[in-house]
Design goal:
9 strands, alpha/beta, 5-stranded mixed sheet, 12 helices, D-Maltodextrin-Binding Protein, domain 2, 3 domains, two-stranded antiparallel sheet
Length: about 260
């Protein structure tokens, strides 16, 4: 550095040295620290990611972008039992996993953060516009496969197809044989309270007029017989339908409409 006529002149050597130290001290200049995260629309639509991702980026100086498909992601948040349990919404556990054997340090940093006390605090501080919250206190029974193994999901599929399939699309095999205006099981799975709806479906219109649950429902009125062939189920059969539906992948209905 030279001083000529009260002017400071930076020589090429000083400029190079200064730039080197700037790059050394500011890692974000030297390399773009970023990861791609995939999460289904049912999760991104809640707004929880918009709440927690800036907090992670501020803490670790790692930018997080959303991948449109899972194959393009470094980190995945899903209900599939892969990776580490991260948080719970309703009766569902969400897991975080890094993809590929050569997962980047940045991806592993995100996984470690979201399961840390700081990450958990960020998750539990979120409240959606409709009052939805997430918990990091897991129901141990939901984390173990023993409960679902006690119920035959194949039998649940058969019962659902026989009793519900005339109106609802249970899967692709009967989609063209149903009432078009009736939501499919995959569409129903997008509701946060889907399990409550299924447990009490026989009380929700139009089901009471043609559905009976053994030892629960009142008999059909003699003066108002069922308009269609009635459905008779036991509580055990209903549990089996729910067990099957629990592993149905929620339909991708696109992003929620944003109202200003």
């Amino acid at each position: 550095m030279k001083k000529e006529n009260d002017k400071i002149i930076i020589t090429p050597f000083v400029w190079v040295l200064t730039t080197f130290f700037l790059l050394l001290g500011g890692g974000s200049w030297a390399e773009q620290k970023h990861i791609a995260l995939y999460a289904p629309d049912s999760l991104t639509g809640t707004g929880v990611l918009k709440h927690i991702l800036p907090r992670f980026s501020l803490k670790h100086n790692i930018r997080v972008g959303l991948a449109p498909i899972q194959a393009q992601a470094d980190v995945v948040l899903s209900r599939q039992k892969e990776g580490s349990p991260a948080f719970q919404s309703g009766s569902e556990i969400w897991y975080v996993s890094v993809q590929g054997e050569g997962a980047s340090d940045f991806a592993e940093t995100f996984r470690d953060w979201i399961t840390s006390d700081i990450g958990k605090s960020a998750i539990e501080s979120f409240v959606s516009s409709d009052g939805m919250t997430f918990s990091t206190q897991f129901d141990v029974a939901l984390l173990t496969p023993q409960e679902t193994e006690l119920v035959d999901v194949t039998l649940g599929h058969q019962i659902a197809m026989k009793n519900c399939g005339r109106c609802h699309a249970i899967d692709e095999t009967n989609r063209k044989k149903t009432i078009g205006s009736t939501p499919s099981f995959a569409a129903l799975r997008t509701f946060q309270d889907w399990e409550i709806r299924f447990e009490a479906f026989f009380t929700l219109n139009p089901h009471p007029s043609f559905t009976q649950i053994e030892d629960v429902s009142e008999p059909f009125s003699e003066g108002s017989p069922p308009p269609i062939s009635p459905i008779f189920l036991t509580l055990e059969e209903l549990d089996e339908i729910i067990a099957y539906t629990r592993q149905v992948i929620p339909a991708d209905l696109g992003q929620r409409i944003q109202l200003n």
